[in-house]
Write a structure and sequence with these properties.
It is built from 33 helices and two strands. It is mainly α and 627 residues long. Helix 5 (79-92) packs antiparallel against helix 6 and helix 14 (238-250) packs antiparallel against helix 15.
Length: 627
């Protein structure tokens, strides 16, 4: 690109030498300006300066010209000429604050600090009772990273003008740059008192300093104490209550934040709306126990609030998420649990979620919240407790009660998933066909098509599965999730059917068992595939699946054995890098041996430097270091 720019410039100069440009033509001046800007962009400052100088001499008051002229003298460190230029400008306007500031900067960058100080000091001497003079001088010092001196100038301005409320925002920013956060927050607090309408600005600036690697718990507590002092001096000032509450949330002090929102709600007398805001905020941060506390408080204390159904649903959804496996308990999209209900605490949350959803259905039967509650109960029964009959009942209720076509089709898709999990491939395919046959082309349509392709694969009709998959690929954008899923299935079929198709049939049988959560039987079949079809491409896939399933069933040692066998036997497998990541995960999440996990992640970094899992491995190593 840079080479092309230079060629274009050379051609322009050959066609239009600078000496023959008709200067009186503004269009030509514009062309020259653009040419100078190109020179400047590619670092040809001397050529840029030559053009800017000629333009400036013709129109000295044009800001594009004089700014370019000055900037490129600065780029070329031509400080003698730059100083002369500023002194010439000052002859006409000797008290021009902007030019004096620039002259001081030129001297400073030239290394003549005494002259720089003399010029800078003159900005104040011109009129020490004008605030703008102190601001101009401070900005000039800031541009040269002289933050301490800039602070001193602004504080001197306060004293000289006998006004402690001056320069609050400027000083706050300077203190933050200097990492003197408490002083900065104090300045912004004073600024907020005078400018309550600018609360959002103040909050964003104060909370924007978190997290900082230099911050300690003591620093956070000091800022919190400062805000508490402001609250004590004016308890009715809701801004400081809100600021303190959000400071607590930013630093994950959710219990303290909750109490502040309770106080804020009382002061504003808004009947639970502020507490609902708290619950929504912490839910978005995946702190589900804390969001449940907020929603429960609203439900109990403000049953007549307009948003009561949303609060009740938020409570149930918080319990559901608190009871679902966290990201740390998931490996390769397979939950790292023998069964979700083996975790007693999580089980209690799931039971609470189902109870709360049921209460919404009973209290608000003809609302969208009831339909959403049926859907969530169905999801819990399908994905977590594996109560397939209960899940089908929930999704069927939605079909019977809803008149919304989108909700009806979504429920039908889920019933199809339930049938698939039951092993009833025919009924499952029928449900997916219902969605496809509506003719509405949207995401649900393609999800149903993908499921239909998968069912044909499980049934051993590889040609039909490929036909559907190719149809999806032709119509879906490459960045969509469905596209990636179907492409993966298509490539798997095409690659593995080249050899003995019996292996592909048996692998499909094993996947059907996995859909039914018959993991032991699936492992047995995968073991058979691995042992019988040793030279088949599918062997590494079978080993990989054995490792995942053993981890899923809680036999982490056998999972590790399968993964390590894959890497040893098939070092060139496309699954090798992901397998290495899964070995680390088994040590980390399953066995709980962090030292071994870190070692395995480091092996991934060394042996697979171009892997797509590199960033994930680095992230996990960083987490170990930080914790």
């Amino acid at each position: 690109m840079m080479k092309k720019l230079k060629i274009i410039i050379i051609l322009l100069l050959l066609l239009f030498p600078l000496s023959v440009f008709p200067w009186q033509n503004k269009d030509e001046n514009l062309k020259l300006l653009k040419l100078a800007q190109v020179f400047e962009r590619i670092g040809e400052y001397d050529r840029a300066l030559k053009i800017y100088r000629m333009l400036y001499e013709k129109e000295p008051n044009n800001p594009n010209y004089f700014l370019g002229y000055e900037k490129n003298m600065q780029n070329l460190k031509m400080f003698d000429e730059l100083v002369a230029h500023y002194n010439e400008k000052l002859k006409n306007k000797p008290s021009d604050l902007n030019t004096l500031g620039q002259l001081g900067e030129a001297y400073y960058q030239w290394g003549k600090t005494e002259k720089a100080d003399s010029v800078w000091n003159s900005l104040i001497e011109i009129n020490p009772k004008r605030t703008v003079n102190y601001s101009f001088l401070s900005n000039s010092l800031i541009r040269n990273r002289l933050y301490d001196r800039a602070v001193d100038v602004l504080l001197e301005g306060r004293r000289s003008l006998n006004n402690d409320r001056l320069f609050e925002q400027e000083l706050a920013n300077l203190y933050f740059w200097k990492r003197e956060y408490l002083k900065g927050v104090k300045e912004y607090s004073n600024f907020l008192k005078q400018n309550p309408k600018l609360y959002n600005l103040v909050e964003s600036r104060i909370l924007g300093i978190f997290p900082d690697e230099d911050f300690s718990d003591e620093d956070v507590e000091s800022i919190a104490n400062l805000l508490r002092e402001e609250i004590e001096s004016d308890n009715g000032n809701v801004h400081f209550h809100r600021l303190l509450a959000n400071l607590y949330i930013k630093n994950r002090m959710y219990n303290l934040a909750f109490q502040e929102y309770v106080d804020l709600d009382k002061i504003l007398n808004v009947g639970g709306k502020e507490i609902l805001t708290f619950a929504d905020k912490v839910f978005s941060e995946r702190m589900y126990e804390n969001s449940a506390e907020g929603y429960e408080y609203v439900k109990t204390n403000f049953p007549d609030i307009k948003e009561i159904t949303a609060a009740c649903f938020g409570l149930a959804y918080s319990y559901e998420n608190a009871g679902s496996p966290s990201e740390d308990e998931n490996i390769g999209n397979y939950i790292f649990l023998k069964d979700a209900l083996n975790y007693q605490e999580k089980n209690q949350y799931l039971l609470k979620a189902v109870s709360e959803y049921g209460e919404i259905i009973n209290k608000y039967p003809d609302t969208i919240w009831a339909l959403k509650s049926y859907y969530r109960i169905g999801e819990i029964k399908l994905n977590l407790t594996f109560d397939l009959d209960g899940a089908v009942e929930c999704f069927t209720n939605i079909v019977n009660l809803s008149k919304d076509s989108l909700i009806l089709r979504e429920a039908a898709l889920k019933i199809g998933d339930c049938m698939l999990a039951k092993g009833n491939l025919k009924l499952s395919e029928n449900k997916y066909d219902e969605i496809i046959d509506t003719g509405k082309i949207d995401e649900l349509y393609y999800r149903a098509l993908y499921k239909k392709s998968f069912i044909n694969y499980l049934n051993g009709d590889f040609s039909k599965a490929e036909e559907i998959a190719n149809d999806i690929i032709m119509k879906q954008p490459p960045h969509s999730k469905i596209y990636n899923d179907i492409l993966e299935l298509l490539m798997f079929i095409e690659e593995n059917k080249k050899d003995d198709e019996n292996a592909l049939h048996e692998y499909a049988e094993a996947l059907a068992l996995i859909e039914q959560r018959k993991y032991s039987e699936a492992v047995g079949l995968m073991e058979q595939i691995k042992d019988v079809y040793t030279n088949h491409q599918i062997s590494d896939d079978a080993l990989f699946m054995i490792g995942k399933l053993q981890g899923l069933m809680g036999d982490y040692v056998k999972g590790l054995d399968a993964f390590k066998e894959l890497i040893t036997k098939y070092p060139s497998s496309l699954l090798s890098d992901e397998t290495q990541l899964r070995i680390g995960e088994l040590y980390e999440v399953g066995i709980g041996d962090i030292a071994f996990a870190e070692k395995e992640y480091e092996i991934l970094l060394v042996n697979y430097p171009n892997s797509i899992y590199i960033d994930e491995a680095r992230k996990r190593i960083r987490n170990f270091t930080n914790n």
